[in-house]
Design goal:
NADH Oxidase, binds 3-iodo-tyrosine
Length: 219
């Protein structure tokens, strides 16, 4: 069934458009992935607003194939840390090829995932690969793309709200279904760790590629 409503689009002057794009670029340039968090509490309504913002993302056939689990509970965070560190220990002590570990050197990562307990919130993003309707399996469309876009908006919303984030992907992540009681049609996508940075937090001294390297223009 097709049903349309009028688009609510407000025109703005070209100059204002340009300035908005510039201001947004400046904001995004300041986003940094942080690995040392303060335990300072964050208003859960801020987190909820950011998750709601993410939920307005486009998705294949508007299936909205995502579920966000917001974890502030200390015991659950501890369970996640223990399970994640178990996987990470294997990763760092054998599963990862030498070349991968070499690529990770600049970031100083290791099997210690203290942030999973320190940060006030872990937002665990699940990808709903399919749904069961009246006993029939119905696949969702472009779930990776859809959830990826929603997660990008989530990270952007948290950054815009002046919180810092870490996108964490312990691998494999199946333990998250068990700990968070999510059904098997949902696959853990990643964990967005969110909070304030630790006092004097440091970040790797890295740069982004130049525009010419990441974009090509045909006019
Ligand atoms: N999941 C591991 C390893 C890791 C992999 C990549 I690619 C990173 O950009 C960062 C870490 C960990 O969290 O340590």
């Amino acid at each position: 069934m097709k049903s349309f409503v009028k688009l609510n689009y407000v025109k703005i002057p070209a100059k204002e458009m340009f300035e908005k794009s510039e201001a947004f670029e400046r904001l995004m340039k300041k986003r940094r992935t942080v690995r040392t968090f303060s335990d300072k509490p964050v208003n859960i309504d801020v987190i909820k607003n950011c998750v709601r913002a993410a939920s307005y993302a486009p998705s294949g056939a508007n299936k909205q194939p995502w579920h966000f689990v917001i974890v502030g509970n200390k015991e659950i965070k501890k369970k996640i840390r223990i399970a994640a560190e178990k996987e990470e220990r294997e990763f760092y002590s054998g599963r990862a090829p030498e070349s991968w570990l070499k690529d990770l050197e600049p970031f100083g990562t290791n099997e210690n995932k203290e942030f999973l307990e320190t940060a006030p919130y872990l937002i665990v993003v699940f990808e709903e690969k399919y749904k069961t309707l009246n006993g029939k399996v119905v696949k969702n469309y472009y779930t990776k793309e859809s959830v990826g876009i929603a997660t990008g908006i989530l990270i952007t919303a948290l950054h815009f709200s002046n919180l810092v984030t870490l996108t964490h992907t312990p691998s494999p992540m199946n333990f998250l279904n068990e700990i968070l009681n999510r059904p098997s049609n949902e696959k853990p996508f990643l964990i967005v760790v969110a909070g304030y940075p630790a006092t004097n937090a440091e970040v790797p001294d890295i740069t982004k590629k130049e525009f010419n390297e990441i974009a090509t223009i045909f006019v």
